[in-house]
Amino acid sequence: MGGGLRDAALVVWVALGVLLGLDFFLSWRGRVPVEAGAPTELFVGETGHLSLRVYRSAYGLGARVPWPRGLDGPSDIEFETAEDGSGIANVPMRAVRRGVCTISHIWLRWPSRLQLLEFTPKMKVDLSVGVVPNIRPVQSGEITTHVQSTLYGVKENRLVGEGSEFHQLREFVQGMDIRSIDWKRSARYQTLMAKDMQSERNHHVIIALDNGHLMREEIGGLPKIDHAVNAGLAVAWAAAIGGDQVGLYAFDARPRIFTPPEPGRLAFARLRSRTAELEYMSVESNHTLAMAELNARTPRRSLIVVFSDFVDTTTAELLVENVSVLAKRHVIIFVALRDPDLVAMANAAPDTLDDVATLVSAGQMQNERQLVMEKLNRLGVTVIDSDPKAVTAKLISTYLDIKARELI
């Protein structure tokens, strides 16, 4: 009895082995050619596409991409049939961290003809994508148009006391400020002549980036430091267009990068390159050392845009104390990125006791944050506490206002 069962089981296993061998023989076609393409450069926070073409039938064909740390995309990929019968896929991938991201290989998968096997070869692709700071507003010309129309356009509005640099002499007409009349030249030309003044140019503007661990917190799908870099580069371009000199300062536990203020668009290209090299640090920022070093490196009165953050009162007190030292000599814009999720939690109607606890904690954090902002305001610091989506527009408007009022 036992021998008969063993013989029957053996026959079944042999038949299964034959079927597997036949299925493998009918399905395996050797190495499958794969073509892959991706953009060489991608702005952080934006989405590009990975294109794949596999020269075999798209029926049942799928793939899996081991996404590197700086890119994010779907875990499973399905292929469509192209006109030549090959399988094609256009895979969206989002850039989430700056740096050079390498996709070295992909895993393909397809079933055998008898559906007994699944082939999962590892295919080499070797693609590199450079994730760089987002300068889309610069490339679009939006910032250039806004700055030039504000500072130099026909709609420019020069208020009394706004300009201290002589621009031109023009004939006095009704509606102009009588205090702009140049009486000596009016007597020479025997008609009323007025001085046309404009804001002084060639100021120093320094973008100071806190690159400590608090700036690694993600807001809107990106770390705070990337939002800060994008906004900092936007205002750097605005300053370059406005005729000012732009520099860069980055710090965490100690000062890391200092690029002296330089004029022109070449300075912007240099700043973009340096910010692209900034690593994501996991150490606590030393504001005392950083602000003291920055103060020593900038003897000339400058506009300093400080991107930083805080979570506790101790960090906040140290930050306020050291920023106040800078504010005695320089014009300071302090930029903090507001967390939309925290605002939503503080404004949500509670349903349970846990919701009440969350509401109280979020409200307390917002109140403490507001107290710090008010303290900075009293010290003469211009504070921008904004949602990441609106911070660039607010920062450029603040820069233009400070420039027009000649506070630097």
TrEMBL record:
Protein name (record): DUF58 domain-containing protein
Domain DUF58 per the UniProt entry, residue ranges: 169-355
SUPFAM superfamilies: vWA-like
Family annotation (InterPro entries): DUF58 (IPR002881), vWFA_dom_sf (IPR036465)
